[in-house]
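Exercise 7. Predict the structure of Meiotic nuclear division protein 1 from Linderina pennispora.
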Amino acid sequence: MGPRLTIDEKRKRMMDIFHESQDVFLLKELEKIGPKQKGIVAQTVKDVVQSLVDDGMCHAEKIGSSNYFWSFPSEAAIKRRNRIADLEKEIAQVDGKIEALGSSIEKAQFGREQTDERASLMEELAEIEARWNLQQEELQQFKECDPELMNQRRKETVVAQDAANRWTDNIFIIQGWARDKFNMETSVFNKAFEIPDDLDSV
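Solution. The predicted structure, encoded as tokens:
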């Protein structure tokens, strides 16, 4: 028993069967020829042929109830030439992009040459940024005294106070309704619903 073949080796040997014979085969014929001539295990022939069909390297056609397979050397050469042409086109596009990026880098680096003046300016910029960050930290400490924030808090307080008074009025209305409807004393109502006796508007 010879060494185990890789899938790529099996595919190459199967293509050799097609190209050397330049014939059309049934799958059963390939399952017999593959092991005898090329050492491809019969049980793997179907998968190998299907992978070649999927990659467009081999043709498959169903005629009646049978499937026929073939691949001619001239087709493979044409496909290889087309593939080479496509790759060369991609290489040209990539070369163009590399050239454009190189030009952009050169333009971006213009004026950024490392000089004493640039180093001094960068140092000054770092100091200014550090001072700015420190001032921002100090500003946060005084944020509670910000007039705009205080004004906003006042407005929010008025809204909250109005809402609290509305709820207090609603409770008084329900107290009155319970007193009139069920002859319930206010103190009894307050005790039942845990309402303080000194409840009043804010």
